[in-house]
Amino acid sequence: MAERSDEVLRLRATLQAIAPGTSLRDGLERILRGRTGALIVLGNDRTVDSIATGGFDLDVPFTATGLRELAKMDGAIIVDRDITRILKAAVHLMPDHTIPSEETGTRHRTADRVARQTGFPVISVSQSMQIIAAYVAETRHVLEDGGQILARANQALATLERYKLRLDEVSSTLSALEIEDLVTVRDVAVVAQRLEMVTRIAREIEDYVLELGTDGRLLALQLEELITGVDVERELVIRDYVPGGRRGKRPEVLLQRLEALTATELVDPASAARVLGLGSVEHLDGAVAPRGYRLLAKVPRLPGAVVDRLVDHFGTLQKLLSAGVEDLQVVEGVGELRARSVREGLSRLAESTILERYV
User: Fold this and answer.
1) Above 80 in pLDDT, residue 244?
2) Does domain 2-143 have CATH number 3.40.50.800?
3) 213 within 8 A of 19, measured Cβ to Cβ
4) Average pLDDT of span 71-95
5) Which percentage of the chain shows pLDDT scores above 90?
6) Predicted local confidence at residue 358, as pLDDT
7) Common-topology check for domains 2-143 and 166-288
8) What pLDDT score was predicted for residue 57?
9) Is residue 1 scored above 50 in pLDDT?
10) Where are the beta strands (DSSP E) in 178-317?
């Protein structure tokens, strides 16, 4: 699992390095237009040296035009890890032939094996097929036309907007139920479900933004506006309802379990409830009591340490809502002014939440 996550991070870093607007992408586009093809290794160490023969030692500053001219020669081009210098050109690469590869073309097969053997990303530009492929460890990613990526990204963004609207609805319903002390396991599971769905779509759009490079600026702004606060909300929901309180499972552990659910499992509230430790299908209609993290997070200028002490002292949201100014002052770090602020903040939130639900 950790290895797979590392591979995804490395692929994302590579896509960022070859996104539109970068010097490397400019050079690759020039090679495509020139119909010459290329094999480029993004990094150099002893392993790369051991499988590289011939060619020329250059060690010159990296430029898109320089990359294009060097690609006219046979052999691979080796640049440094930061893509700031071109180290070698016209190099013949001889990776371990026993490394399995499903590629058929000589250039692509070499790129695949070099990436697996050295751990460095390798870029292959196909002369005949006119495509750019990035090889990172065991992953092969073919770069697509920016217009196609943007079309898919806009479609995903429209889907995210619908899902976010539904998330806001179920989140508001949960807040009202919390104040009325009518929350069930199903209500919590549905909110956790929607939060995870929104997060997954957002991550997909983030990948599109990464590939679009400078062409994805507006998309990134729209995405940021839609998902602001979602990560915080995910953690607060879990902290409010995880069995055992602060002595129970850490929020990040349960979030990882939610992320591990398949798309089919995620649409079932019972699956979300199970990974959160709230029971299975027969427990969905069971009552649960929030601790108050979600509501306290909406009170202005309330430090996290004070929130933790308030929750530890009162235990449940209902006790917090019924506490007076004097009761709140008993908690360490809560003076008279802060106690009044918390009391008034909770009262306003409770009133506005109920009005939104029933008006």
Assistant:
1) no
2) no
3) yes
4) 95
5) 79
6) 64
7) no
8) 94
9) no
10) none
Q: Is the pTM of this model over 0.85?
A: no
Write out the H or E segment, with its range, that includes residue 42. strand 38-42
Burial of residue 9, with CB atoms counted within 10 A of its CB: 0-12 exposed, 13-18 middle, 19 or more buried: exposed
At residue 157, what is the residue type? L
Token readout for 311 is 């929750």
Tell me the pairing of strands 132-136 and 38-42.
unpaired
Instruction: Give strand ranges (E) for 211-306.
Output: none
Burial 262-291 (b: 16+ CB within 10 A, else e): eeeebeebbbbbbbbebbeeebbeeebebb
Q: Where are the domains of the chain?
A: 2-143, 166-288, 291-359
Cβ neighbours of residue 7 under 8 Å, at least 6 residues apart?
A: 136, 137, 138, 139
Name the CATH superfamily, with its identifier, for domain 291-359: 5' to 3' exonuclease, C-terminal subdomain (1.10.150.20)
Burial environment of residue 58 by CB neighbours within 10 A (0 to 12, 13 to 18, 19 or more): middle
Tokens of residue 46, six digits = 């002893």
Cα separation of 89 and 92, whole Å? 9
Residue 123 has pLDDT above 50, yes or no: yes
DSSP letters, 252-277, are: HHHHHHHHHS-HHHHT-HHHHHHHTT
| CATH architecture assignment, domain 166-288 | Up-down Bundle (1.20)
Look at 116 and 9; give whichever has higher pLDDT.
116
Amino acid, single-letter form, for residue 83: I
Are 115 and 136 contacting, i.e. CB atoms less than 8 angstroms apart? yes
* Exposed/middle/buried for residue 153 (C-beta within 10 Å: 0-12, 13-18, 19+): buried
pLDDT number for residue 209: 94
